[in-house]
Amino acid sequence: MPKPILTHSYCADFYADHGYQFLKTLSQTHTIPDNLVIFSVMHSYEGSLPYINVLAELADKLVFIPKDATLGATPGLLTTISTIPHCHVVSPQNNKAYLRNPAHCEAMIRQYIDAETPFLILDHGGYFSYAISHICETFQEQCIGITELTANGLQKYLDKPLSKPLVSVSHLSIKMPADFEASECIVHYSDQILREEFGLKINNSGFLKTGVIGAGNLGRGVIKHLKAKGITNIHVADFDPRKLTQFPRDGIKACSINHLVEHCNMLFCCTGNQSITPEMIDNLSQPMFISTVTSADDELHLPDLLANGVLTEVHSNALTKEYKNKQGHSVYLLAGGESANTPFKTGMGDPTLYLFEAAHMLAGLKLLDNPHQFKRGIQALSEKDEMMIAEQWLKHFYHYI
Predict the structure, then answer these.
(1) What residues contact residue 73 under an 8 Å CB cut-off, 6+ apart?
(2) For site-directed labelling of 310, which of 7, 72, 370, 394 has its Cα 20 to 30 A away?
(3) What is the pLDDT of residues 233-287, one digit of tens each?
(4) Rounded to the nearest 10 degrees, how much is the dihedral formed by the CA atoms of 136, 137, 139, 143?
């Protein structure tokens, strides 16, 4: 077997090899059908290479579908990925929009399978959700099932009739460390973008008033790392007021989303599901800086805002896009509206990412091993499987006894 390609630009692969060996060991405990094709939606991060290699070794073909957000973040990485044996990279395009069309989605799948080929979908962000009913019906004998990594992706599947099992790993407790790691990256790189693009520091309280929309894992992580940067006047809002009851005792202002948008001009949108409405944008009375943990499509429904004239794009570069509302007030989307760590090399340096990759992979392996143990529709990976992953991860990286 050829040596796996674990790095793209780092000097050494000793850290990546640790992750590769962890995922590889986990993958070897399951039976894989012949001629399997895996369709995997994934970020184009260098840190994804160990996982991509393991998936490519499992399948006859691994079809790598790069997420739009990180396509331009690491030029040349897709070329590296395409050199991994059995790995086929879907041509860079607006894959999210392309796969929303069931006919396009079917055509893409048919490029990589024949009439007898079993295939598995490892989704990340609900890319296949719009076409999934059509895919399950069209490939009834071949589609084994779907796994979904993220909460915002799972949301897109909730109202879809599914004739196949979908195993979600979005709400597992072992995802929490990676969510907090992502929160740290998002705060850090938002600060870096503000410095480079506007000459501002994120803790410039004389100019920036900070608000966090969404009090889940990512929102709480963002608040923690904002406080670590000395920011004290933080507002937080959530659709569910129960989630806000933990904050006042720590000196954080709990408020409605409308109040937060009215009083803050540096927003972290952490819901994955339209945190800011068109009416709020129409009523802005000052420039607004926005950083998202998913994308502007999810948090703002940006294509609709542009199509309906709520926002007009006036300027963009590699780090920021500027829009204006109807009143002429600027809305600056850090990282172009994608998760604020996407313009930078991320995903390496902390092994927590291998926890959620292991869960995502294991959900697929369980489907392959015995699809009949799963019912059609949405279900979570079992607590027993989650505990097994946690124990193996602790043993592999931290000598847990």
Answers:
(1) 44, 45, 342, 343, 344, 345
(2) 72
(3) 999 999 999 999 999 999 999 999 999 999 999 999 998 788 899 999 999 989 9
(4) 20
